[in-house]
Amino acid sequence: MSESGENEGDVEFVREVCANGVCMKTSEVEAKLDKGNIEEAESSLREGLSLNYEEARALLGRLEYQRGNLEGALRVFDGIDLQVAIQRLQPSLSEKPSSKKGRTKSDVPASASQHAASLVLEAIYLKAKSLQKLGRLTEAANECKSVLDAVESIFHQGIPDVQVDNRLQETVSQAVELLPELWKQAGCNQEAISAYRRALLSQWNVDNECCARIQKGFAVFLLHSGVEAGPPSLASQVEGSYVPKNNLEESILLLMILMRKYHLGKIKWDPSIMEHLSFALTLCSQTSILAKQFEEIMPGVFPRVDRWYSLALCYSGVGQNKAALNLLRKSLHKHEQPDDLRALLLAAKICSEDSHIAAEGAEYAQRAISNAQGKDEHLKGVGLRMLGLCLGKQFKVSKSDSERSRLQSEALKSLNCAISFEHNNPDLLFDLGVQYAEQRNLSAALRCAKQFIDSTGGSLLKGWRLLALVLSAQQRFSEAELVTDAALDETTKWEQGPLLRLKAKLKISQSKPMDAIDTYRSLLAIIQAQRKSFGPHRSVSEVEDDKVNEFEVWHGLANLYSRLSHWKDVEICLEKARELKQYSAEMLHTEGKN
Amino acid sequence: MSISESAHSSPTAIENTRSTSIRSTFKAQSAIESLSSIITTVPDSPNPSSSLLNDPEIASQISSLLRQADAGAGNDNLCRWLYDTFQSTDPQLQLVVLRFLPILAGVYLSRVTLRKPLAGFEAVLLALYAHETTSRSGQSMTVNVPDISHPSIYHESNTAVKNNATNLNLEVISPSLEPHGTVRSTKRARIVGVALELYYSKISQLPVASKIDFCEFCEAWAIGGDHQQDSSVNNNGERMRIPLSWELVQPILRILGHCLMGPDQKQNKQLFDAAYCACKSLYGRSLHDINPKAMLATGSLLSLAELSLDDIDYTEIRITNAISL
């Protein structure tokens, strides 16, 4: 590549052709070619440079290719019988490397044949390139494939590392890299996949950068082509080695291998590899593995603040908020980038989930609000929302009354202000509803909960629960139960736990203990079925915080039975509860009453 | 038609394929016939299922019907046609239905809060969901993220064998599928998400126009139709900001990844641009939701789209002034 860079202006103009120590100007030959006299051009080359027929044709073809005369190049190459040429090459090359271990002078004839092989293979390769540029992609792919087939039949054992003609190796490497590209361009996806695997699983002796490009190309194809590759053939599988079983696994494997090559200094840094890996791992929610990849990257590749932020996203993506917050604190330090809006918002969000650090979060949110300017102004509403949430959380741990009422009113003010920026964001309605409910402004809370359900089409369970809870706080138990029933209709069995628990409590509040017992029974059935059907693996969505605790259910039942003076049932329930949790104050209390 | 005749003839392999292809042409023809009572002009074509899939005239008529204010109700003839066509079980015809999934799902999710009857849309979505449930036999899809300290088909490793307890990083990327006879509101995103997973699995066979439709709806879902703070303009609620849970975002990301970096993008600048805009909107939305995973994934897609603009062709030969043997 470097050579072509030197004389960019006139690269298309070939000045001379050289062979056997002689050089000749091409103008005369070109004139003949332009007239369509391939034979004459050929014979003047043969005479001028003392070449044989194939050599002359190969040179002419390359000349035409470089001149951009692709049709002409094809006409020249068509005159070479490549199959015959390949067959002629086979015996001389295949015998030597396998029979002789020591590399002696007797290899000289082999290297002469290598030279001939190189010439022929380069000619086929250029034929493929010409066809590619003419849009005849399937033909191009077949020509390119025949280069690789020929190499495989010439070198049975794969290409040896040493004593391979540079030019031959270059052609082979280029053909290995080109073939899958051609199949892709031709729209032959399955052929592309086999070509990629053939490139990566056989011995072609391609250099590290070239191999890396092929691996990356395949990884991208697996990730984005939308064509399922299926597992690699059994022949390529070695006992005990990892075999990917779908596209995502195979592409992640390749990208991780590329990252390792970079760490080992075998290839240079390519930012797109990390981005592809980041996309693939995030798709499977494995951002903690992604974090490890970020940690392994040498300092200096990314600005450290960016790296901390990416790491914080990774940790926060798997719920490791403490680790995420520590990183964000570093990057928001006054000597780093204290006003980085994205980091401020993420930090505020994390703090808003824990009342003990909510004050810190409120500070981040304030800073975010004052920095949301210019093109970032649209994030002002997000900052206000976070401020409202943090203040609301802070309220919960605050001790003085005056402070509490200040926090309350400011929390409400921020959330309401946020709505003016994000009037179409239903999450804000929910936050406001919760805030109002906590401040015992139940009619406002009710309004928000209803609006939230409307604007999300009832698709989020938390909306239904908020509405039922607000109604129950207003002592409107039967309405709360209606809402709970409606919510039950909109969910499937597995998500019904929290709703059933709520329903049982509503029944108790309405002094219907027998109904409550029935509800608890269905709840228990669900919990137990769930435990059986979900094996050790769970998806993230299933490990949500609102799982109903089985212990709680048994304990609730025990309380109910004890109210009804069904002492035997109380005993059974307490026994069950004890199996789950040996010492518990609530349980001892119930036992005492018993 | 000649179906019965070919069934009587000798059951060689060729005959069999011929009779399947005849049957499939027959199905496609009858699909076209019933479509002609719904849209105004149905062109005559020797290859009916291909023209149903690719004909821009048919596509634009169906699309505008799906976008009509009263579309998607229980008695919507077009929805019935889409449903029946999908149930034909002919793979080519099923592609035709998937081709219109972006518009159907897009309009559906945007309008669902308007309390309009949408049973027609839902029937089609449920059919797609049921198909996917059957073909996966309800199983979840998992990914086992490799641990490269162990050797693989593509690399060797020194620390092999020593520790046999492979670090299993097993992740469920699409949970198991339970049958649904109706669209319960809390399952809506999942049902549409699974339909999009099906769309993605066939995406290499779908026309670019369908993918562009998808990108445009993504943009609407992410930010709504009212860029200029004017909530009154949302053409029949067609461009509505919707809740974006991971079960929707994940298949959306896969489809957008394909649109940005798949095979069509190179030939089709319009698709690339549409996908790029969709990604940008989703990235903006993830900042608003402070959703770390969505930020990471959309952020990566955006960087990749920018990086992909300068490509060097390493398969080009070295151009020299002197050609030598």
UniProtKB/TrEMBL annotation, chain A:
InterPro entries per UniProt: NPG1-like, TPR-like_helical_dom_sf, TPR_rpt
Name this polypeptide is given: Uncharacterized protein
Pfam families: TPR_16
Origin species: Acer saccharum
UniProtKB/TrEMBL annotation, chain B:
Keyword Membrane: yes
Pfam families: Hyccin (PF09790)
One annotated Gene Ontology cellular component of this protein: cytosol
Example GO biological process: protein localization to plasma membrane
Subcellular location per the Swiss-Prot or TrEMBL entry: Cell membrane; Cytoplasm, Cytosol
Cross-referenced InterPro entries: Hyccin
Any coiled-coil regions, as ranges: none
Keyword Transit peptide in record: no
Protein origin, superkingdom: Eukaryota
Keywords for this protein: Cell membrane, Cytoplasm, Membrane
Primary localisation category: membrane
Family, as annotated: Belongs to the Hyccin family.
Descriptive protein name: Hyccin
Lineage: Eukaryota, Viridiplantae, Streptophyta, Embryophyta, Tracheophyta
